[in-house]
Amino acid sequence: MQKAIVLKNIVKKYKLYNGTKERLLDLITPKKYGEDFYALSNVSLEVEKGETLGFIGINGSGKSTLSNIIAGIVPESSGYVEVNGKTSLIAVSAGLKETLTGRDNIELKCLMLGFSKAEIKKMEPEIIEYSELGKFIDQPVKSYSSGMKSRLGFAITININPDILIIDEALSVGDKAFAEKCLEEMKEFRKEGKTMIFVSHSLGQMKKFCDKIVWLEYGMVKEFGRAEEVLPMYENFIKKWKKMSKKEKGDYKSSMMQKHREHVVQ
Known about the structure:
Layout: E1 3-16, H1 20-28, E2 35-48, E3 52-56, H2 63-70, E4 78-83, E5 87-91, H3 102-112, H4 117-131, H5 146-160, E6 164-168, H6 176-191, E7 195-199, H7 203-209, E8 212-217, E9 220-226, H8 227-243, H9 246-263
Parallel strand pairs: 3-7, 3-8, 5-6, 6-7
Antiparallel strand pairs: 1-2, 1-4, 8-9
């Protein structure tokens, strides 16, 4: 089968500074300031064309960072990224300009994706209708709820018909009826042989849609395999995680972050 996505040894490193002064000193002096933080460490995976891949993991595990790298929004610090096809990321307010209206955001996002003004004019009524935003379409996006932003993002994406659809927690906000509508649209995408990346805390949705699962834990791949194999392991972990004290969770995180430093490919 043709590979839709190939990632090899992906590392994403950020610098954490104690204030603006330290950040400036790091830029203008030979001495190094700040602390290295690895959001992703040596992430490798392959996604076949037409597969639906789920990203799971507790908060802070790098799911959104990895989604943004695949979507081309955030660059990797090192490693190899191959994406075969047009991608579109749906996340709350992803790619939306807060000061512009919903209608202006439709035009801006579609222009950035290479559509002509004539094509956008033709697509716009369908996007607005799908979003169910009504008169709010001509209000600034900064006045939207998170659910409304998600609606607009999903409506634009569905109408531009990408090859690879990346959904990052976009169905966890807003009303249930719209979420169901989006899930039905995702089923159609699957029938068309589209590739999907699905980020969600809903294990029920994961079981329903995903062929394979990547379990990320503080930026590293803990497990990668068939959904029916990985999800039960993750469910058992979550049960134990919820019973941990705050100190136990902190100790666990510290031990995992130490593994970051030991396993990063320089």
